[in-house]
Amino acid sequence: MTLLRRIDQGLARGEAALIAFVLLAMVVVASVQAVLRNCSDMGMVWASSLLPSIHWVDPFLMKGTLWLAFLGASLATHDEKHIAIDILPRLSTPKVRAAMRGIVGVTVGVICVYYGRVVMRTILNNAQEALLAYE
Question: Which pTM value belongs to this model?
Answer without folding.
Answer: 0.68
